[in-house]
Design brief:
heterodimer, A: about 325 residues, mainly alpha, two-stranded antiparallel sheet, globular, disordered N terminus, B: mainly alpha, 2 domains, 14 helices, about 75% helix
């Protein structure tokens, strides 16, 4: 598997490209790279850096989002509002359900990846089934699970079949249950990606290492503990970061399924409602977005510190 | 020893079978519902097979009355333009970064690296103002420019792949009198075919599935894409689950066919895409 370190090392190797022949074009070779870069850089600045900068500016103002209305500078008031408004505080709590779910998701992915790394009948079939949900359109998944969770729907029927009829509830209507249902949907959707990444990493461990371990009398658990686990540490770390930043920016599933009702409003749904909905609170929405951006960057930075990019040496 | 082994194998297949059922059941019941008539749907349970397995009435209703044909056409247009653009922009950026030495190169490289960390879902409040000022709000070009402008993963994939293409090929072409654009177009681009295939798969699936961007930027009813046209089923077809189920299947089936045909490439694509 390739690593991120390949990118920063590019300048060193690219140095060789300025061969004598390359200079034959005189000054041309200094202008040429910019001709290749002008469109990509223009897009990068317009749609990533300019919005990011504006976001910080908007977050310090009170503004309804219409060009004609002046932006009123309010300092840090929007940031204070995030932590004091009664309608915003609960959205932080909702993230906790999805973060919890991402731990379940990692554990399941690791379990199935390990199982399928041993010789298994119908391996490709199981692999395909477990991975496929990741490819499905989010709106379609929303409808599939709306259908599954509806009162008297598939889930309730299954529970009745197994004599567990007493467990049926308003899966999406009860505020104390809805976030579990939505987080479970999210696990169903995303587990396959983690599983395939883990499986790929496990299978890139050379077979001789397992053979040597088996000769030394290692059982399945030993193989997992001392060969597989250290061998895929990096990809687990990376997946965790993706899962956590994903948990903080959940939007599609709860929006399609409940529109954020019954206490299932996530951080991003709140930002969309405040910034684009009828509230016209662009300043407040921007402050929330800046906070989310800061958290995601911080989590990524932590990951870089804890899990360095080097590949674990198994030999 | 053999007894523990047997139990281990039994539990392994039991858990795999359970996972396969949990994964497929939600999809299978939707497929069943999509093939039932309205009266039949309300009369039968979710596991009762439809009386006529070839009853495609709901599919016709979903596609015609649900504007899904328009959605498919818009998605196809966005997909083709965005993919061609992403390939050109991504390969040009990668070519400039990997094959040239120039002033501020590390700054440019850093700009792309940092941009990859910014989740686009967070910045939409401000991006919206820019798209609006460019006059692109409620236009099919809004998602296209956003897909082109915020796609860093493809650049990563192209850079990585280009590093494996020997520089001696560039130099040989230069000796033959080719200029940099000819080298890019005639030497590098054809050799990048496998990377282009990976990008088409990863980005193609992402764009086909995208909901947030078209939902925010194309609210007009004739500008639905596959995701938003399905989402709009919520109102008019609110109680007609058999039609909603058919619409859902219309969205899922192309993905399933693509997956069955190109499994190997899809796995490889996501493994190389996710670890950037």
């Amino acid at each position: 598997m390739t690593t991120r370190t390949d990118i920063p090392s590019a300048p060193a190797s690219a140095g060789r490209s300025s061969t004598p022949k390359g200079r034959r074009n005189g000054q041309g070779w200094k202008v040429t790279p910019w001709l290749f870069l002008i469109v990509p850089l223009a897009l990068l600045v317009t749609f990533i850096y300019l919005p990011a900068g504006n976001l910080i500016y908007y977050s310090l103002t009170e503004w309804d989002g219409f060009g004609a209305t002046p932006k009123v500078f309010v300092g840090a008031a929007n940031y204070v509002a995030i932590f004091t408004r009664n309608d915003i505080l609960p959205v932080f709590l909702v993230s906790v359900y999805y973060i919890g779910a991402s731990f379940v998701q990692m554990a399941l992915a690791l379990y199935f990846a390990t199982m399928l790394s041993f010789s298994t009948r119908f391996r490709n079939l199981f692999k395909g089934i477990l991975f496929f949900p990741y490819l499905i359109n989010g709106v379609a998944i929303g409808f599939v699970f709306l259908y599954l969770f509806q009162p008297g729907g598939t889930l309730d029927s299954v529970l009745h079949t197994f004599g567990l009829g007493s467990l049926t509830q308003h899966w999406l209507g009860d505020p104390s249950v809805v976030n579990y249902s939505l987080a479970a949907t999210s696990v169903w959707r995303y587990m396959g990606l983690n599983f395939v990444l883990f499986l790929g990493a496990i299978q890139s461990i050379p077979a001789q290492i397992y053979e040597a371990a088996e000769i030394d009398g290692a059982n399945r658990w030993h193989q997992f503990r001392y060969i597989i686990a250290p061998g895929i540490r990096r990809i687990i770390g990376l997946s965790f970061i993706l899962a956590i930043s994903g948990s903080l920016s959940v939007f599609e599933i709860p929006y399609v399924m409940t529109l954020g009702e019954n206490g299932s409003t996530t951080f991003v749904i709140k930002v969309v409602q405040l910034g684009f909905g009828t509230f016209h609170k662009v300043g407040l929405a921007s402050a929330m977005a800046v906070l989310l951006l800061a958290i995601v960057l911080f989590v990524t930075w932590i990951q870089r510190r804890i899990v360095p990019d080097e590949v674990v040496d198994l030999s | 020893m053999t007894a523990t082994r047997a139990i281990f194998i039994f539990l392994k297949y039991l858990s795999l079978a359970a996972a396969a059922v949990v994964t497929m059941l939600p999809l299978v019941v939707v497929l069943i519902a999509s093939l039932k008539g309205a009266a039949e749907y309300s009369r039968t349970g979710p596991f009762d097979l439809p009386s006529n397995l070839f009853n495609f009435e709901n599919f016709a209703t979903a596609i015609v009355k649900g504007d899904m044909l328009q959605g498919l056409a818009n998605t196809a247009f966005i997909l083709v333009v965005s993919l061609v653009g992403t390939i050109l922009i991504g390969t040009m950026t990668a070519y400039a970064i990997d094959r040239f030495q120039f002033r501020f190169k590390s700054l440019v490289l850093g700009a792309f690296l940092v941009a990859a960390l910014v989740p686009s879902v967070t910045t939409q409040v401000a991006t919206f103002q820019i798209v609006n000022n460019l006059g692109l709000f409620n236009s099919i070009w809004a998602p296209i420019v956003l897909f082109l402008g915020t796609d860093i993963v493809s650049i990563y994939i192209f850079v990585q792949f280009m590093q494996a293409i020997p520089r001696s090929l560039d130099e040989a072409a230069m000796l033959d009198g080719a200029n940099r654009f000819t080298i890019y177009w005639r030497v590098i681009l054809p050799l990048l075919k496998p990377a282009i295939a990976t990008v088409i798969i990863i980005r193609g699936i992402a764009i086909y599935n995208e909901f947030y961007i078209p939902f925010l930027y194309m609210p007009s009813s004739d500008l639905g894409v596959i995701s938003t046209s399905l989402f709009r089923f919520k109102g008019p077809f609110g109680a007609q689950w058999e039609v909603i189920a058919a619409g859902t299947m219309v969205v899922i089936i192309p993905t399933l066919i693509l997956f069955l045909v190109m499994q190997r490439y899809i796995y490889n694509g996501f493994v190389s895409g996710a670890s950037k």
